[in-house]
Design goal:
With 80 residues, the chain is mainly α. It contains 3 helices and no strands. The chain has a domain of 45 residues. 34% of the residues are buried. The model has no long low-confidence stretch (mean pLDDT 78).
Length: 80
């Protein structure tokens, strides 16, 4: 039950943050959110959701900050 609730929460977070934005900051923040959600779900499968979320968040933030809207663009962030 706990795993299902955690997975559902991670997926909802992923969908809520599934936008990139145009500024480097927006892209880093949303990339971190997406990466943390995906990393948490992946980590949950191997028994380490916290570590997965941290690694996924770091990779997502780096990817978001280092890419431009012309390379990856998922639209306007939900929070803007």
């Amino acid at each position: 039950m706990k795993r299902t609730a955690f997975s559902a929460t991670a997926l909802l977070t992923l969908f809520a943050l599934s936008a990139c934005g145009n500024s480097t900051g927006d892209r880093a923040v949303t990339g971190a959110g997406i990466g943390a959600g995906v990393g948490a779900v992946g980590g949950l499968l191997v028994g380490a959701p916290l570590e997965g979320a941290v690694i996924g968040g770091a990779v997502g933030a780096g990817t978001g900050a280092l890419t431009s809207p012309s390379q990856i663009d998922l639209g306007r962030p939900v929070y803007r």
